[in-house]
Structure prediction request, 246 residues.
Amino acid sequence: MTEFKKSRWANAEFTQEYRDNADIYIVERRRLLEIMKSFYRHFVMDSGHKSALDLGCGDGIITHELLTVDASISATLIDGSGDMLNNAKERLRGFKDIHFIKASFQEILEKDILHGNFDFAVSSLAIHHLTMNGKRELFEKIYSHLQPGGYFMNIDVILAPTDTLEQWYMKLWREWMDERKTALGIERNVFSDIVRRYKEYDENKPDTLGDQLRALKDTGFEDVDCFYKYGIFAVYGGRKQEERNA
Prediction:
């Protein structure tokens, strides 16, 4: 896996550019967030107090959206970028029981950083920076820190299973960005290389949806499925097994 401090995400200027243009880069970003909130309401939320783990939290938008559904959540947010964490702290200022940890995925896998178990673990557009072996290790780490019956959801970019499909998926992505640029009145072509960067940058290591679903099942997750997909953008996850009485 690419060492975090050597990636673009350790650069404050790059992370600012990403935050400024996320609604253009990310296909149907608003819908992805609404699907996550619907999932939380349906499968996780009840009368009890819930804890959430936000992996690669960025500027805290995922946790903020969850708090609009359940303001009593106890949340732990982890990111390797100090700049992103500062923005997350600002976004979530005023909320209680929110904890921040500065750590990369490498550190999560190699050190004892996570403490306690969570009812819901979620990540958005971050896990694709890991190799397939790294993804498997992270899925195992997440599984070990979920409450029995707890859920994991990943919102991320994936690798198309064939070149033919990839060509169409890239076309869908370009069309989305062109539509958003038109709607926002942006004329300059500042997003022309984002599609190329997706695969050519060493820090991006997307894998197929099928491989990742199999990895979740091999880890022990149940109810594993893809919950939503639009080209290379997918939402998938599963549930940790309930404890069984002897």
